Amino acid sequence: MLPFLVNLFPDKVLSPSVVDFFVKLTPSLLSDRISTPQWGLFYGMCTVMIPCGMKIGYIFGTLSPAAAIQGNAAPREVASKMKVTDKVFAKLQAMEEHHFENAVFFIGGSLAAIQAGVDASTITQLQIFWIGQRVMHMLSYGGAFGNFAKPLGAAKTFFYVLAGAASASLFLAAAEKSTM
């Protein structure tokens, strides 16, 4: 229910001052590179691929029996087997799937805002914010083991909601611009 409400009323969750505050916390290495909405899309997609790279690194780094037997001939079959037998892999797989699910809204919102002619600085601010929330989501997702599971699980949800609000804000900006 919470994601639905956030997506319905993103302007009540994310004010420009909140986005600006978080963007100022973003390392300049990222924020200086995102000079156009197209660069924001590029770096957003790079962010989405991080869990996939972590998962592949884990598979080949641990030389798990399933991966060693199958190699890369049947990656989905290996993944389905490993999800059942390996707790770390299951978490990495879930993180990857979650990032791909969330990326659809980021891409759609970014493209809608670009197409509608929303100011590029507004779009890039929201994109930088979204990337920051996804990175924080990854960190809280990956660390949510043992005694840290509950507090980091709550943080993970918080970052998920903020990223969703950023995507919804991109769509809302596009809708507002197209009705003017």
Note down, in words, how this protein is organized:
The protein is mainly alpha-helical. The chain is 84% helix and 0% strand. The protein contains 10 helices and no strands. Helix 8 runs antiparallel to helix 9 (120-142) and helix 9 (120-142) packs antiparallel against helix 10. The radius of gyration is 18 Å and the shape is globular. The chain starts with a helix and ends with a helix. The model has no long low-confidence stretch (mean pLDDT 82).
Q: Indicate the mean pLDDT.
A: 82
How many helices?
Answer: 10
Q: What characteristic shape results from the CA principal axes?
A: globular
Secondary-structure element order, as H and E?
HHHHHHHHHH
Strand count, sense and barrel status of the largest sheet are: none
Based on secondary structure, the structural category is: mainly alpha
What's the count of strands?
Answer: 0
Q: How many angstroms does the end-to-end distance come to?
A: 31 Å
Low-confidence stretches: none
Strand content: under 5%
- Our Rg estimate from Cα atoms comes to 18 Å
Helix content estimate: over 70%
